[in-house]
Amino acid sequence: MPEFFYNNSSVEQLSLELHFSPMIPICYVPWTSLKKLSLSSCKLSDECTTTILSCCPILESVTLDSCDQLNVLDLSKSQHLTTLEIDRSLGPTQIVAPYIRYLSLTNFKLPCTLVDVSSLTAAILETSLCLFKNLKSEDILVVLLKMLEKLRDVEKLTFSAKFLQTLSLALALGRCPFPSVKVNDLTLETTLSSVEFPGIEKLLQNSPGVKKLTLHVMEPGTVPLLIPIMNIDYQNLESEHVVSFIKVLLKFTKTLEKVVVRLACYIDGRGFEELLGMVSMLSHEYNVSIVLSSTCRIRGRSLECY
């Protein structure tokens, strides 16, 4: 990188894509006004990252997309940093971020230890399918449960279908104490496959204070199953299937006040109305507010009923 690039003290937002070239800053980077930093396809050493962070005193947001070579991401001196997003990156393997409020780890490719995320209020977790290919089932479960333990006080959590599938398989093959989490707003991305049930069941059973549950039914083909099980014809998804899924989940919870179900475009207008009637009965039976929404459009509007 040219030296003048590192000597801009007025920049507030910066996005870089280096095509996997190493980022080697000079000893001092006067990015004193920088608030938002996004790095894509970069080779980031621990030393390089430390240098950059030490010279950005008011940094509020960091995004790493497809970055590698970073082992320890130490944000303990970044007191203004509230948002950390990491996607498709080989690293870090350790995160020290006591001040961040929002964490997104999507498609993370190496086991990651959350050393300190004590200020978190919201987090999104999505594993990569290649993450655990060289680990034993017991080790997989230990990695996932350690992450959940660090997230035990987070108010809002989102887990992807791949995370739920991985957790389910690990639970079937290994045994470890499952941590209790204090989440009150839980989002589960699901394919409605039974392979996700064990993970979902454990999460709900160990989330005694959850009040809002959002089910985001994923588009067909967007989440490859880890094992071939329970093939679902999404284009002809039956209302009974959705209701059965919701009913099973409601049995695992005692404090739920609201369930939101986002169906994408699986059920047509007539099917949606049928489902609405069935869900209304379910709502009265369990004394829970249930919201249905679909991206299908009828007469120019999206379907959404409360």
UniProtKB/TrEMBL annotation:
SUPFAM superfamilies from the UniProt entry: RNI-like
Q: Which domain of life is it from?
A: Eukaryota
InterPro entries (alphabetical):
F-box_plant, LRR_dom_sf
**PANTHER family named among the record's database cross-references:** OJ000223_09.16 PROTEIN (PTHR32153)
From the Swiss-Prot or TrEMBL record, give the protein name.
Answer: (rape) hypothetical protein
Annotated organism of origin: Brassica napus
